[in-house]
Design a protein that fits this description.
Length: 466
């Protein structure tokens, strides 16, 4: 039934693989401790089928996880993020997949005509598909864990964990030790994939997703990858503790969209890092709309002459959401360009944190870096912290940054109301206009429209203090 449902969406000309999430796996005893503990690691993670190099890495990562302290507000990285509402003991590192499989909601899937799709639940693949002609040309859209021992093992071994900084904090080490499932996308040299590749990651009620994403776009290849997160139960807690590593090889081009759309009960911790090689180009769009508490580190490394990255961020928070996004543009070599624009809006008691850094390494002359963060306050009780930063270690560079925070202009509301709009309609119009600059930079029409629609739906009537 599930296969029929997805086949009807995907259409003919695709190869579909389904996974019951139990095949080729050693199922843990549900009576044992399955939490993120030493017992859970012993019972669930170590018995999983995997190459020896992967098992040895997990053991090192777990030792680090045990040694590192929990983040607290005395640490600069976590000074603006309060973790008291998060309890790791509420979650387990493995849970059976529901049977029958549930319907997975998605804001983007109905709008996209795709070259390949993969759907995961609680971090584990439940279906995937790739157009047959692209499959024959070497395009891979698969579960990362399943691919560890397959024909791409050496390719994965060369790249996996080479960008991800797993020793940085407790959550990074937890992810490196306990990760399961995940997604592996490989675009071979010279292959141009015109239609997007979609990954929908869903969370069931009170479950955890510790999946890792590895994307390699090889030399002179082109692709668009869209990742969307979604919750099956809008009122249940969930945990995502994940990582993303992206390699854009010389002359390659990648458009990547990461649409974080969990419910407002989910805890989201992630490290995302991309390396852009010489003559390569990456457009990275991030939408941050869901999550009770989200702490994300996003980094792009420009590691070759004439490499370029454009980073777009759209953040919207309401109620008591806390979204903290730390960005970094690292110019490792000269003649590189990065351009970052983040825009955020918040209402109720929400709290947004954006901390950005442009770093130019020694010798990276003629680097060109730009970063900007603008925020729109829609209530008197919301709070925003925006901290731009520059670290320049080379001469002959051009780097600029800026950040703003302000309230809705009452004159704009009044002007729109004189044209027959209600106050709510006028507010939506103003907020949409505020985001338009960053939405215009998103080159995938369906993603741009989906982000705009969701933000408009969430904007409540604005009333200023005055």
């Amino acid at each position: 039934m599930w296969a029929d449902r997805w086949a009807s969406v995907i259409g003919v000309g695709y190869q579909i693989s389904l996974c019951n999430a139990t095949s080729a796996m050693v199922l843990p005893d549900l009576k044992q401790d399955l939490h993120f503990t030493a017992e859970g690691f012993q019972n669930v993670i170590l018995p999983r089928p995997q190459p020896e190099w992967s098992r040895e890495f997990r053991l090192r990562a777990f030792e680090t996880f045990q040694e590192l302290p929990w983040p607290n507000r005395s640490m600069e990285e976590w000074r603006r993020t309060e973790l008291r509402i998060f309890h790791l003991e509420n979650f387990v590192c493995w849970a059976p997949v529901p049977d029958p499989l549930p319907e997975v909601p998605s804001a983007l899937a109905p709008r996209l005509e795709t070259a390949g799709r993969i759907v995961s639940l609680n971090g584990r693949k439940i279906s995937s598909s790739v157009e047959e002609d692209l499959l024959e040309k070497g395009l891979v859209v698969e579960c990362l864990e399943d691919s560890l021992s397959g024909p791409h093992e050496e390719l994965i071994r060369q790249h996996l964990w080479s960008l991800f900084e797993w020793r940085t904090d407790k959550f990074s080490a937890l992810h490196a030790a306990f990760w399961t499932g995940g997604t592996f996308i490989y675009v071979p040299p010279g292959l141009k994939v015109e239609k997007p590749i979609l990954h929908v990651a869903a969370l069931a009620a009170n479950q955890a997703d510790v999946g890792h994403t590895l994307i390699v776009v090889d030399e002179e290849a082109e692709a668009t990858v869209v990742t969307e997160t979604t919750s099956l139960d809008p009122a249940a807690e969930g945990l995502f503790c994940g990582g993303i590593e992206i390699f854009v090889r010389p002359g390659a081009r990648l458009r990547y969209v990461n649409f974080q759309n969990w419910n407002q009960k989910t805890f989201h911790f992630a490290r995302q890092k991309a390396e852009v090689a010489e003559r390569a180009f990456m457009e990275w769009t991030l939408g941050a709309l869901g999550g009770r508490l989200a702490k994300v580190n996003q980094e792009v490394v420009l590691n070759g002459p004439e490499s370029e990255a454009i980073v777009n961020g759209v953040m919207f928070a309401e109620d008591r959401q806390h979204l903290a996004y730390h960005t970094r543009q690292d110019h490792r070599t000269g003649q590189t360009k990065s351009d970052l624009l983040y825009k955020g809006a918040l209402q109720d008691h929400a709290h947004l944190v954006w901390r950005g850094m442009i770093r130019v390494e020694p010798g990276a002359i003629r680097s060109d870096g730009y970063q900007r963060n603008d925020n729109l306050m829609l209530s008197d009780t919301a709070r925003v912290d925006c901290i731009p930063g520059l670290e320049i270690l080379a001469d002959d560079v051009r780097c600029t940054h800026g950040a703003t925070a302000g309230r809705v202009d009452e004159e704009e509301i009044f002007y729109a109301q004189t044209r027959g709009l209600t106050r709510r309609e006028a507010t939506r119009l103003v907020v949409t206009g505020f985001f338009q600059q960053v939405l215009d930079r998103i080159t995938i029409d369906s993603v741009r429209e989906a982000l705009g629609d969701i933000i408009q739906q969430r904007v409540r009537e604005y009333r200023s203090r005055d």
